[in-house]
Structure formats: structure tokens, C-alpha cells
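Exercise: predict the fold of this chain.
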Amino acid sequence: MAAVARGQRRRGRAPGAASAAAAEDDGEEQHLNPFLSDAAPSSSRVQFRNVASRGRWVEEAGAAEVLDNKGKLWLTTGIARGGKLYYNVEEIGFLAERGALVLLDDKDETVGMEEIYGKIARGSYGCSWDAFQAYRHLKLLGYIVGRYDVPWTMKQIRSGDVTNSPDSTDGSSQSFGKANGACNDITKLLKGMRIDGMYPTFKVHLPNSKFKKSSPGVPSFLVCLLR
């Protein structure tokens, strides 16, 4: 009888209670594997609480230095350099769209979405508009996405857990790599197969609540964009 009563209490719980508890446990991002979960498609989307971090745009880096980081977004977003956390322009666009990030300029004035979209569309900060759309789509599905061949942390560089690419692994500078195709072994392989104009853009990991930037493991797959 006691077991039946407990089951009735669980079934009687409000529909939103379980999902709210899960979001509380998992932090800012609720990662569900779309290949393994039988839940409705909407439940696999990224969910944010009503909080926002702040970041200041650094023109020389083409990225935003995070000033105050609320919640656990940093676990799967941004790259660490010199003890600081930075968001690339595609991450800025995605987070700002969802009210999870307030971007400031060098005068501490808020940068609006129109200007953020402009930074992405110009393609001058390592990410094109097409690459941003691919990034946004994957993030909405709950995947963990980073720029290809760009280490999440300096620890990856020291451990040799990245491809030796001078454009992306220079931890002594603020070069955070590009999401629009650097010259690398995969690009050479594709050219050898007579596939021109295609290049790796993002590394993608399956949803994983235990993901660590310092030891992310091998990506589940890469995203390549065709020019």
C-alpha cells in the first residue's frame, strides 16, 4: 500500500515539477540526447532560467570577456584563456537571443541584438552567418558545440589534446581560432577526395551532464560547411 501511495503521489505531481527539478539539478542547460530520449522534441531544447550573465566585447579578440557568470553556462560554453572566460561571437548571439547574456561595449553600454547580428554577418570574427545558424540549431537540440580545432582550455594545449594548428592553439595570444575553415588535415583529406570548398567548422559532443572542458574527449562528430 505504501508503494502504491508513493506512486500515486508521483503521478499526481504537476507536469512542470519534474522538468523544473531536472533543470535545477543540471544547471543552466538541460542536455538530453535526442537519439536516446523518447521525450517530446520540445523537451530536448536548451532551457534557461531567468538570469543573465554579463560580458564585455573585446575588439582585438573578436570575443566577449565574461564579467560575471551566473549559473553553469560556462561548463559547456566559452573558452578559458589566462584565467578568464571568453565567449565567441556565435556563443554571444545564441545566449543573447535567449536573454542569458547581456553584452556591453568598451563604455559599458548595452549592445543590442541588431549590432550583435551585424558582427556575425560580417564574418570578421571567425564565424559566418551560415555557421551561426548551424551552431544555433545544434545548441537548441542540446548538443555541446565548440569551434573545430580550438581547445576549450589551456590544459588541452599542454596535454597535446588538439591538432597542431598555429591559428587555433596559440594560447599566448587572444587568437580563438575560426569557425570558417582553417587549413588542417581534414581539409587536405577532403581535397584529396576531390571535395573542394568543404571544411570542418564545429566539433560536436552528445549531450552530457558530466562534460568537462579540460578533458572533453573525442567529439561525436564534426560539422562541415560547404561554400
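Check your answer against the key: The domain at 53-152+178-226 is CATH 3.40.1170.20 (MutS, DNA mismatch repair protein, domain I).
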